[in-house]
Amino acid sequence: MKKPSAKTLSSVSSDLFDLVQQFKDQPEVTKMNSYKLLERVLNEQCHLNPSDSKNPLSVKPPKEIPSDSLQNPSDPDATYSGHKGQGYQVQIMESYCKDKDEKTKETTLNLITHAEVQPAHESDAHIQPRN
């Protein structure tokens, strides 16, 4: 996946700002989930300065955008990790055989005993093995 250029981000952000401004005084629109997602993207990804008519917004540098910001309007719970990208992470535990005999290890049934889906931005350093 190719990163968008600064020009593309600026153009898309400007269009997004115009849409939000166009409908901000229409309560039937501002109640809609899709409008709220537009506002969320705008607030999380841009610096807003509506009083400046020439430059009402600027795209935030990547380091200023929180990792739990909206990454995909069709999946608002997906987050971002610099190591894993957009989406989720999954912690999976399975049973294991303590037997040192290789033949026993190969024939022992291993089962998934736990699975946990987490946002991609959460650290997995705190995950502890369960007995």
> What class, by secondary structure content?
alpha+beta
Low-confidence stretches: none
Average pLDDT reading? 82
- Beta-strand content estimate: 15-25%
| Alpha-carbon Rg, integer | 22 Å
Instruction: Give the domain tally.
Output: 2
Cross-sheet strand order for the largest sheet: 3-4-5
Distance N to C terminus: 40 Å
Judging from the principal axes of the Cα atoms, what is the shape? elongated
Concise summary:
By secondary structure, the protein is an alpha+beta fold. 31% of the residues lie in helices and 21% in strands. The chain folds into two domains: 6-71, no CATH class; 87-119, no CATH class.
Structural commentary:
The chain has 131 residues and is an alpha+beta fold. It has two domains: 6-71, no CATH class; 87-119, no CATH class. It is built from four helices and five strands. The strands form two sheets. It has a three-stranded antiparallel β-sheet, with no helix packed on it. Strands 1-2 form a two-stranded antiparallel ribbon. Helix 1 (6-23) packs across helix 3 (33-45). The protein is elongated.
